[in-house]
Specification:
about 350 residues; alpha/beta; Rossmann fold; Ubiquitin-like (UB roll); 6-stranded mixed beta sheet; 5-stranded mixed beta sheet; 10 helices; 11 strands; about 20% strand; elongated; binds guanosine-5'-triphosphate; binds magnesium ion
Amino acid sequence: MPANLSADYLKAEERYRAATTSEEKLACLEEMFKTIPKHKGTEKMQADIKTRISKLKKEMSSSSKGGAKRADWFHVEKQGAGQVVVFGAPNCGKSALVRELTGLHAEVAPYPFTTTQPAAGMMEFEDIQIQLVDTPPVAPESPAWLFHIMRTADILLWMLDLSDDNLLETTEQTAALLQKANISLASSKPEARSPNAAPDSSPSPQPPTPNPKRCLRLGSKSDDQQALDRLAILRELIGDVEVLPVSAEHHIGLEELKRRLFAMLQIIRVYTKKPGKPVEMRDPVILPIGATVTDAAYHLHKDFAQHLQFARLWSGADYDGLRVERSHVLQDKDILEFHV
Ligand SMILES: Nc1nc2c(ncn2[C@@H]2O[C@H](COP(=O)(O)OP(=O)(O)OP(=O)(O)O)[C@@H](O)[C@H]2O)c(=O)[nH]1
Ligand SMILES: [Mg+2]
């Protein structure tokens, strides 16, 4: 079948041949992939372009390992109520998910090694924002900074591609790479949200926590026709560990995912009001589960906690403006009025 290549494609190909730097070559290859007519007669050429893009991206990613230029990639500054780092094998749908949930302009493409740098976006959940970090794929050639970003996250989100025929091998390979990087994962079962449970870490900037990391596993591309069969096989491999099926493209499971991430962060929202004034329902104070009235006051201002005389609390049906002790343990969505 004749390829019938368009003028745009031919121009991009000419520029590719003349390109001297990797960045130029990559831009031309991506333009070639975009402009090549998509039919049976060009299938081999499409596959060839994809392979060249992947190879080039891999080379660019490993050749830029180390060096001063990389320094700012070692750390993604935390913002919002908590940081969730999305990771997984090449092409599993990380960028598509982060883009869908945060609106981040992350590049999504049908070939592996598209993402080469971490990028963060903010996901809204009710009245707070949770940070999601898109990352380059976990692969044998992954740079060390990728695992560092994973180690310092509040929560990890492991994407397992339910459209991948080699899902079991891919999962085992990713697990082996995590192990090599000394990252072990904690359970992804729903966390108990008991107000008296001691938090195991604070949601805000903190020193790197030791392993194991709290991790939720997602079965991505759950809209694939054989997704359920692959999920069943995957569950046999990984045993009694939860995998939440989601589809970024068909918006399946995303609301449940947001709720689960909030629960895993082990945080509460506390609203404040001034005496005689209405409650400030925006920008709640974010505290770890188990936080007290003093913690909330301290969060607002150090002096405030020192000079606090008493506080009134509105909490569910039990507290309707009652005076509470400084040591009173707060619950999600409590309202506090401070008297200093
Ligand atoms: N059917 C389906 N395809 C998806 C879904 N999410 C992503 N894809 C496709 O999967 C391919 C890879 O998506 P990306 O988001 O670029 O994957 P990635 O994990 O970021 O890839 P790398 O950055 O290369 O590691 C693209 O062709 C997407 O259109 C989904 O929910 N359903
Ligand atoms: Mg990506």
